[in-house]
Amino acid sequence: MAKKELNLNRVSMPKQDPQERARNFGEVSLGYSKAQAIAEADRCLQCLKPTCKDGCPVNVDIPEFIKALREDDMPEAVRALKAKNSLPAVCGRVCPQEQQCEKLCVLARKGAPVAIGRLERYVADWDLATEGTPEPQAATAVRGRKRIAVVGAGPAGLTCASDLAKMGYGVTMFEALHTAGGVLKYGIPEFRLPKNIVQAEVDYVKSLGVELVLDNVVGRTELVDELFEEGFDAVFLSPGAGAPMFLNIPGENLNNVYSANEFLTRVNLMKAYLFPQYDTPVKVGRRVAVFGGGNVAMDSSRCALRLGAEEVYIVYRRSEAELPAREEERENAKEEGVIFKLLTNPKRLLDDGQGNVRAVECYEMELGEPDESGRRRPIVKPGTEFEIEIDTAIIALGTRPNPVIPSTTPGLELTRQGTIATDVATGRTSREGIWCGGDMATGAATVIDAMGAGRRAATDIDRYLRQK
Amino acid sequence: MYRILEREDLTPTIHLLKIEAPRVARKAQAGQFVILHHGEEGERIPLTIADWDRAEGTVTVVFMEVGTSTRKFAQFKAGDVVDDFVGPLGKPTEIENYGTVVCVAGGFAIATIVPIARAMKAAGNRVISIMGFRTKDLVFWEDRLGQFSDELIVTTDDGSYGRKGLVTEPLTELLKTRDIGRVIAIGPTIMMKFSALTSKPFGVKTIVSLNPIMVDGTGMCGACRVEVGGETKLACVDGPDFDAHLVDWDLLISRQRAYLDQEKTSDERRQHHCSGGGHCG
Ligand SMILES: Cc1cc2nc3c(=O)[nH]c(=O)nc-3n(C[C@H](O)[C@H](O)[C@H](O)COP(=O)(O)OP(=O)(O)OC[C@H]3O[C@@H](n4cnc5c(N)ncnc54)[C@H](O)[C@@H]3O)c2cc1C
Ligand SMILES: Cc1cc2nc3c(=O)[nH]c(=O)nc-3n(C[C@H](O)[C@H](O)[C@H](O)COP(=O)(O)OP(=O)(O)OC[C@H]3O[C@@H](n4cnc5c(N)ncnc54)[C@H](O)[C@@H]3O)c2cc1C
Ligand code: SF4
Ligand code: FES
Description:
The complex is a heterodimer.
Chain A: H1 18-21, H2 34-41, H3 52-55, H4 62-70, H5 74-82, H6 88-94, H7 101-104, H8 116-129, E1 147-151, H9 155-166, E2 170-174, H10 183-186, H11 195-207, E3 211-213, H12 224-229, E4 234-237, E5 243-244, E6 257-259, H13 260-269, E7 287-291, H14 295-306, E8 311-315, H15 327-336, E9 339-341, E10 344-351, E11 357-370, E12 376-380, E13 386-389, E14 392-395, E15 399-400, E16 434-436, H16 439-442, H17 447-467
Helix pairs in contact in A: 2-4, 2-8, 4-5, 4-8, 5-8, 6-8, 9-17, 13-14, 14-15
Chain B: E1 2-11, E2 14-20, H1 22-27, E3 33-37, E4 45-53, E5 58-64, H2 68-73, E6 81-82, E7 84-89, E8 100-106, H3 109-122, E9 126-133, H4 142-146, E10 151-156, E11 163-164, H5 168-177, E12 182-186, H6 189-199, E13 206-209, E14 225-228, E15 231-234, H7 235-238, E16 241-243, H8 249-256, H9 260-275
Helix pairs in contact in B: 5-6
Bound molecules: flavin-adenine dinucleotide (2 copies), iron/sulfur cluster (SF4) and FE2/S2 (inorganic) cluster.
């Protein structure tokens, strides 16, 4: 093959204008056109040893699907992509590609790596638009009528359930909320991941014959041990890491101080942005401070802008380099006007005398020696306190595992972090017949990691049930 | 989908719904609650379990019309279905033999204290119940609570029925004259606060069922934060029952009022729609 000329610049993503989009909940990134997708796909060198693939937690056949796309063989592109990834329309939008596949793309050494995520999204959206989702492979043979209960319908649960259903098992998925999708529904906002895309994925899983039982809080409505009594042969736990963490500083229980979980649940799941047409309210004044630097903080800040806030601050205790959010969302937030207060940490929240938050008092920080996480430790600079006037505070520090299931399931070993101790390769827990995956096993992580865990557990559950 | 089998109006604004929910009925215990949600636009609201029948697979809730969601649920009739009915949530009320237990309830909470009185009675306690109402026309379930009470005292604010005055007056007398092992007080926040202040000097442990604003009811959002003994607790998973003497009442009252303006907007909008002769729901 003749040596291909390197093109170091990626085709840019068409987006809604920042000024305009900062006031609506429509999707920010509009997606490539066919010409743009093919032009971007054409940048791929089709490496003989594609390193990108190693960066993908589920080993998507990246060069294969890009090749098919470039040759305009869309059905083949879809097949290659979906062989390894059952939620590509979601992953194309929310995976931190710059830390995964794109980081390892050979082009990244000289310039911009191939925009793998954008191409993935293009292929997946084509698939959804043409209703090209292959007819659900109806279970070939019911494997001895074995039944599996999946607890929690987020990305880990959905992946595990669909894999097991395709193998011919009877699968019932129990979900605590009134809708399936997990964080994809209640956490990640509409403008980043439209809910009809998530629902399409849920519908697909249901079309495989998976029974979905909503409004069922396992540990309350039903105990894990009762699932076995009801005749399930295996249980996969994927309830996520849903409990919010707080700052533990004075003033945290004032009105208009939200956990990001509450704020985002009100906005995304309950659609408070459509209040009063919708019944659930949310309060966002003129000035909002969001504490934290991850995706959750970016999403909260950008929702606050869209709800009419005039000034939105991200207050983060380390520097720009340590911000854990996806690069694209960081850039989007900046373009939309979110103000970054870096190396800043809150000391306390102040009262307006009526029980509402009025201001946050912060310290300036500096970075010291690296800590256990390898990142430089933030240290308070004494005497640097200053106030930021705010009407609303949103605490986006992350989440911990919810104890509802561990505390009602005897014999499940936990880690020090309160996650369920799980063998990474198989998803097995300390109890026979119970598997676990996703954020409940790892602590807050990513959509693709949760999916990978769901898939590995499905494989191992199959192995176990065949031997049983 | 959860079918409504029965609807009853206990007063013009307090309604009972008996709902088919076998999984919830199977597990329900005194003091726990459910979350109801209906329609794409609906809110999730918590209501205490007022009764259940495991054999029949039903759960009963009793609620008072106070705003948009409760007025919407007030439109439901037997045969209708509620989209979502989640539970049982929260910790059950601690039931033991404490000797003599005083159950104090006001307004809609008369219904929710019945299963607690019943369980206390079954555990061998002498049960004294005090039920408080504004006026005679709002009195309900005197017989039902009476069934599980060794003594029953009814008060009305205006003296139109039973004793005139607030529930705290007979409560004070009982605490002064009898050996009381425990007080359970459920009702409007202000009533629970004053019941707590009443029993505190006597050192009698008092349990209240707190009702902060909730969203998921499973410990996921943190909306239901309350302070008890100086610590932040989530009422939906750590409660809703707490030691009344340790509750920060002013914080609870303030947090319950967080959305006052929005609640008014929503309620006015709804009433406006209804008087327009259109379809309400
Ligand atoms: C705001 C936000 C933004 C994010 N952005 C990104 C991003 O851009 N990219 C990325 O890769 N990751 C992102 N993440 C992280 C990612 O969403 C999670 O890592 C992933 O969703 C975890 O999947 P899961 O299946 O383990 O759990 P979840 O998605 O949390 O789903 C768990 C499900 O289980 C249900 N459940 C919980 N308890 C019970 C119970 N007792 N009984 C029954 N059901 C139960 C829950 O209601 C939920 O539906 C984000 C997270 C948040 C909160
Ligand atoms: C654990 C628990 C058990 C409860 N049990 C009962 C019961 O058995 N019977 C009954 O009549 N009421 C009960 N309540 C209160 C009931 O949930 C509220 O009255 C109802 O949510 C009001 O909604 P609304 O839209 O009609 O009124 P709104 O106009 O929205 O609000 C009126 C008042 O109700 C409270 N409220 C509003 N939204 C919520 C919410 N999502 N969660 C909790 N409180 C809210 C607020 O303090 C507000 O000021 C309980 C509350 C809790 C937390
Ligand atoms: S590493 Fe980059 S150039 Fe090579 S195959 Fe993967 S995407 Fe294409
Ligand atoms: S209601 Fe959400 S944590 Fe209690």
